[in-house]
Amino acid sequence: MLHAALQVFYFTKNGELYAMNLTDCRVRVVRLYGVNWFGFETRTFVVHGLWARNWEDMLRQMKSLGFNAIRLPFCTYSVRNGTLPSSINYDLNPDLRGLTSLDIMEKIIAKANELGMYVLLDYHRLGCDEIESLWYSDEVSEDMFIQTWLEVARRLSKYPNVIGADVRNEPWGATWCTGDPATDWRLAVEKVGSRILEVAPHWLIFVEGTYKSKLEVDSRALYPYSLNWGENLRAVYECPVGLPPEKVAYSPHVYGPDVSRQPYFSDPDFPENMPAIWMQNFGYVRASLGFPIVIGEFGGRYGHGGDPRDRAWQDKFVDWLIQNRICGFFYWSWNPNSRDTGGILKDDWLNVWTDKYQNIRRLIEACSTLENLQP
């Protein structure tokens, strides 16, 4: 079982995540071998699969496979007091009967804590139907966005396994380093992140990339590669997030041919051309600047339907992560019902895609052999 919330403090240094036990000041490295378990961000207002399985059984299965972390996406209304979930088989999950969505989220976090599993909270959607372009919308104002985060932090930061806040999923309409407070994601993270840290000072702030930045406007010839939503961290070199650097982890989203139709997937040199692209888009943030990188999402069908090139892409990406000692990730997804990627689980919500899992397992095993670095 992990330390009590008031006894743990998460921080970063030299490209790694750390946890300090405030009782004895012992420090340990934190490596996140995670999965995305989605559903709270949808109109079911709860993680998916509870119509087919018991929720605790799925947590134990994740743990048995070597995963030690879960990214929990949510939307504004799933973390409101009084919101009731749907699509739960209460014969399989009798202890969830009568609980609100937020009650169930807290129950999952508490059980994950018992199992020694970290949780990253991800504000995935403002409404619960689509990924909006910014951190505010006509439906959810910036102030409502901030207040929602503060309410979530007040309730859930008492759990020591909650490592932090992924401030906003894939702000694809935002810019970076433009100085426009209406669109500049870096400025928004500083504003929102500082408020979150006032309530949960022991948390980390996870920062996704954008789709555009000042650099794309001024220097397209220098940055010819297309991008995925959440992948673009090219402007961090010029404009890092202005929060205390020890509280920030950068968290790009990276996808292959099953999800995005990028021209470089058709390059004759594919997949050998990919490492240079990953390094330019986000890898340099750790390699050259020393900030930690935690991959917030990557995944695909791995040859089980979809684009046959996806298997080679995922193999090469895991190779690259191992070579660059990037040992934090959340695979998309645990769920099999992700339309373009599938999941770790097959459609029966029970059995695992063995070959897809074994590729991820290579990364877990390689990272587990690294020395327990001290800051």
Automatic annotation (TrEMBL):
GO molecular function, one term: hydrolase activity, hydrolyzing O-glycosyl compounds
Protein name, UniProt field: Glycoside hydrolase family 5 protein
Entry keyword annotation includes Transport: no
Keywords, alphabetical: Carbohydrate metabolism, Cellulose degradation, Glycosidase, Hydrolase, Polysaccharide degradation
PANTHER family: ENDOGLUCANASE, MAJOR EXTRACELLULAR ENDOGLUCANASE
Keyword Hydrolase appears in the UniProt entry: yes
One Gene Ontology term from the biological process aspect of the record: cellulose catabolic process
Domain named Glycoside hydrolase family: residues: 34-338
